[in-house]
Batch of 2 targets.
Target 1
Amino acid sequence: MDLAVAVIIGAAFGAIVSSLVDDIITPALLTPALKAVGAENISQLKWGEIKYGNFLAAVIKFLVIALAIFSLIKTLNSFKKKEEIVAAGPSSTDQLLIEIRDELRSGK
């Protein structure tokens, strides 16, 4: 069940990133470069017969997704470490050693 939810959310996130790159990042950042080479769309970028525009868009999408996943995992790990610090108490071995020490001090 969790895997199905992850796949659905991943597909939706992929669509969001595609829209972000195609509709916002590419026009905002690459418009001057596209005009300089005489292209209207990133997919029209090519060097000879090699069309590198779609590859460039895929790399940008990958970097956006990688940054988002990195940030999410880093945030989750920081919360997990805080929970471990709060929940961590003496281990069973440490607890046993504490009891032995206390009994030896009391002289029983």
Target 2
Amino acid sequence: MAETTRPRAKTREGVVVSTAMDKTIVVVVSRRIKHPQYRKYIRVNKKYAAHDEKNECNKGDRVVIAESRPLSKRKRWRLQTILDRAVTDVPELRTEE
């Protein structure tokens, strides 16, 4: 019997917009498509609920999510890698007057 290989999971790159739920993040993936009639490029956003096992993401992080088995009613994606961390601690600039 020949071994069949499982197809690669789809991946998407986006920005975390919510971490309010436990072990779940909401990621917005933005892509550009050409409008069929007007031939102008428009931006389309889609939100994905993804599983974050260690609660390591914060709002504003750029992440890669991968397709997985259904984990709950809306979660079909899991966190794969964190590409960039969001800047959270910005020191105030003091103006000398």
